[in-house]
Amino acid sequence: MAMLFKALGFMFVLYFKIHGTMAADGNFSFSFDGFAKSPSFDKDVSLFGDSKLVSSTSSIQLTDSVSGSVGGVVYKKPIKLLQGKERRMNSLSFSTYFSFSMPNEISDVLGFVMVPTSFDLSLFGKKDNSSSSALGFLFQYAKNETVVGFEFDVSSGGNRARILMGRPESSQIRNLSFEGDLMMDNGGRLSCMVEYEASSKRMMVRFRKSGSVKMYDPFFSFSVDLEELWKGGEFMVGLTSTNGNSSNEHFLHSWRFEIRHPPPMWMHSEPLQPYEAMEADSSREEEDGVERNECIWGMLGILVLGAVCGALGAVLALCIWTICGVRRSMVVVPEECPVKDVSAIEEGKK
């Protein structure tokens, strides 16, 4: 039995060791499904500009009902993009989801921004000279900073997106339009999903209307190497919004972010409807000797766990066999009744 308990103890130690290592390597995430209900909101989230928390609806009001209103929300904790040590660093993928509502007018814009840890977060509340852009404050105030961001507006005139990568003072916004009926009714919500695949170095943006069964369609995508942009591998994420000349209020209802391990290269699929403005370079070279630590550690963990389970089964079977053997040796055998000598009795009678 002592061997059995030792095997169980070893298995539990191995399990927590493996899962603890995976958590330390960057299983980072946050989720706000109703901001007023979250106990970590005040500690992890900062509001800038005209943004404010609406306790009655547990949502964040990004803009006021005045023209030229600008607001931003930032998750303050740095997010680590790389895992591993020294030369065995691997870039991780991530997904983020947020639900929002804003009127269907061209001047109403919402943007998603990724900035390095050295970025001055107070700039998210700055108003720029161009009130029709959610990324305009970066061009005016974020000097010598490397950022990645995109903004979009949804209106009867069409869906438009603008993308910024690199240093604002030396970069130009890339413009494109994307198809799909994303018009929001009064009080209606729209969900946005942003995915970054480290293996293909591509970021994809998808949408879904509230109550729709069709998942995240339409989308736009673009190529970006976050590992190359931020050598340190850490960044912060934020959302920014402006209503331009419309005097409309914008609301953020929920926000979720999660780091995840990138899938193998053979599992990655390119978008089914790529747009020419956002197509990746067709001459992308594959690097030799790509480290696949995740697969190696996963296989090693399975092998070790299988060996431990096999040993545990053998020990358990041995214990059962021993117990059964002891029980057989303890079976009581009835004593034989003594047989009397019949001839001796007959002689006595005589």
Automatic annotation (TrEMBL):
Residues 29-267 form the Legume lectin domain. Keywords: Lectin, Membrane, Signal, Transmembrane, Transmembrane helix. The chain crosses the membrane at residues 296-321. Gene3D superfamilies: 2.60.120.200. Residues 1-23 form the signal peptide. It comes from Brassica carinata. Belongs to the leguminous lectin family. GO terms for molecular function: carbohydrate binding. This is Legume lectin domain-containing protein. The keyword Lyase does not apply. The keyword ATP-binding does not apply. It holds the Pfam family Lectin_legB. InterPro entries: ConA-like_dom_sf (IPR013320), Legume_lectin_dom (IPR001220), Leguminous_Lectin (IPR050258). PANTHER family: (RAPE) HYPOTHETICAL PROTEIN (PTHR32401:SF18), CONCANAVALIN A-LIKE LECTIN FAMILY PROTEIN (PTHR32401).
